[in-house]
Amino acid sequence: MTAVSAVPLAEFEARLREVLRSKVEFIEVIGEDLVAAGGKRVRPAITYLASKALSGGEQHLFDTDLAVCVELLHSASLLHDDLIDDSDTRRGQETAFRKFGNVVSVMSGDFMLSRLLVLLAEMPPSLTRAFGLAASAVCEGEVLQFQVAAYADYSLDNYLQVIYGKTAAVFELAARAPALLRSAQGHLTEALETYGREYGLAFQMQDDLLDLMGDEATIGKPVGGDLREGKATLPVLYLLEGESGDEVRRILERRAAQTGDVERVRELVAAQGIYQRARDEIVRRAELAIAALHRLPPSPDRDRLEAYAAYEVQRVR
């Protein structure tokens, strides 16, 4: 994306590598894998751009450390999430727990959280509270997802709580944290918070839609992973409301959907207009994110934030 060109990612990567340095080889290797694998770096980019949008393009002394903190929280959650989901790969590489075992993977994630706390100690106390609340939301989202599957308590409200915790809470933090750092006016802080939350919801909804309806060669993994784990994502929840609801619920409750089950659900989504309905909701959330930014002064960095949210409705993986 063109928006990335305005973000000092080389500076960010160097600082991330420095912060993750350890005397313990396994932790060092996991940290180096994290830096080398890269990823889209969407969350730290949001932090940089939000900070510059608040300041007329000027970078704050703590912008890079704040972006690193956001990435550390995200990466720690991924290390734990891969273990929870029994994932084989992450960003095209073998997951840490597959390489080193459960204990090393979990403790390396905790190491990242401890390094995050060291960085936050130099910043305003409001940021420590904000990161703590976001981390709590991530944990709650993960556990709620399992609770929903265990009780077969499928609802849109539960789904939104799950994806807020798993994804949108960190997006919200990435956008809001610079406002706390700069002691921005309340309406500007609220605007960035809304932007991050709605963008994060759109991001996860798009991921979930691609997990079911994407092309395996494009998304780089077998389709239907969520369905196989008994997770009711947005298109499946829409199916549960209709005439195919009982059939789809039985597939979900088995929590062991086979290839034929996945193909059946994909057919139902396509035949009943569910795909477009889910896409419409993704577009609506992205538009809410963009609208929230209009409370900020016009600037190239605000435009770049808008471009990130607008891109979400086109993303294919």
From TrEMBL:
<dbReference type="GO" id="GO:0046872">
    <property type="term" value="F:metal ion binding"/>
</dbReference>
<dbReference type="GO" id="GO:0004659">
    <property type="term" value="F:prenyltransferase activity"/>
</dbReference>
<keyword id="KW-0460">Magnesium</keyword>
<dbReference type="GO" id="GO:0008299">
    <property type="term" value="P:isoprenoid biosynthetic process"/>
</dbReference>
<protein>
    <submittedName>
        <fullName>Polyprenyl synthetase family protein</fullName>
    </submittedName>
</protein>
<keyword id="KW-0808">Transferase</keyword>
<comment type="similarity">
    <text>Belongs to the FPP/GGPP synthase family.</text>
</comment>
<dbReference type="Pfam" id="PF00348">
    <property type="entry name" value="polyprenyl_synt"/>
</dbReference>
<keyword id="KW-0479">Metal-binding</keyword>
<dbReference type="InterPro" id="IPR033749">
    <property type="entry name" value="Polyprenyl_synt_CS"/>
</dbReference>
<dbReference type="InterPro" id="IPR008949">
    <property type="entry name" value="Isoprenoid_synthase_dom_sf"/>
</dbReference>
<dbReference type="InterPro" id="IPR000092">
    <property type="entry name" value="Polyprenyl_synt"/>
</dbReference>
